[in-house]
UniProtKB/TrEMBL annotation:
<keyword id="KW-0812">Transmembrane</keyword>
<feature type="transmembrane region" description="Helical">
    <location>
        <begin position="12"/>
        <end position="33"/>
    </location>
</feature>
<keyword id="KW-0472">Membrane</keyword>
<protein>
    <recommendedName>
        <fullName>Copper chaperone NosL</fullName>
    </recommendedName>
</protein>
<keyword id="KW-1133">Transmembrane helix</keyword>
<feature type="transmembrane region" description="Helical">
    <location>
        <begin position="81"/>
        <end position="99"/>
    </location>
</feature>
<feature type="transmembrane region" description="Helical">
    <location>
        <begin position="104"/>
        <end position="127"/>
    </location>
</feature>
<feature type="transmembrane region" description="Helical">
    <location>
        <begin position="168"/>
        <end position="186"/>
    </location>
</feature>
């Protein structure tokens, strides 16, 4: 059973990961920022675990002209699922720390990495759908043009400059993924040495 025990440093970091994931439920996860000559101060939209905030209603009004669907939080099943998923992973991190259990550490690491990849894939699909499935009767139609914002980074869309990047919650989630992976590798190597 001793081989399955975690070091004190690993346990402390797992506790911090659990607390961080709880915090990420209540903070913005992702930011999409638009700037154009007619909006020099910019427009910002923030995606949380359970809602959309910022100036998305203004963005909806602009998107209407190019045929993009309106953004409404109640249309996304992810906003129902995500707070519980983050809470579940927070609980696993806290359990691994409190029970000093490597098996739980390995399990939460693998599951959270799979979740992270699936989350980013789902977000990419969401952006793709909004940027490509346009109303053919829109007021402004540019043949061959799509309006998919970048997943991460910068993109020019007509006269709008668009940036997309992790916010506080997203930064925490990325940090937790990195810490879990490092902890799992370190603990696995430590266990191999003691065998």
């Amino acid at each position: 059973m001793k081989n399955n025990s975690l070091t004190t440093l690993t346990r402390v970091l797992l506790l911090l990961c659990g607390i961080g994931l709880i915090i990420s439920i209540f903070t913005p996860i992702w930011s999409i920022y638009l700037s154009a000559p007619q909006y020099p101060e910019g427009l910002a939209m923030f995606l949380h675990a359970n809602k959309v905030s910022g100036e998305y209603e203004i963005i909806n009004g602009l998107n209407h002209y190019i045929g993009m669907k309106e953004i409404h939080a109640d249309e996304f099943w992810e906003f129902t699922f995500l707070p519980y998923a983050l809470g579940f992973f927070a609980l696993l991190c806290l359990l691994a720390a409190l029970l000093k259990n490597k098996t739980i550490l390995y399990s939460v690491t693998i599951l959270f990495l799979i979740f992270g990849i699936a989350f980013m894939g789902d977000f990419y699909y969401w952006l793709y759908d909004y940027g490509h499935n346009l109303d053919p009767n829109a007021a402004i139609i540019v043949p061959g043009m799509s309006y998919q914002p970048p997943l991460i980074g910068y993109k020019q869309l007509l006269n709008f400059e668009v940036w997309s990047y992790p916010n506080i919650g997203g930064g925490i989630m990325i940090g937790v993924a990195v810490i879990l992976l490092i902890l799992a590798i370190v603990e696995y190597r430590r266990a191999k040495k003691t065998v």
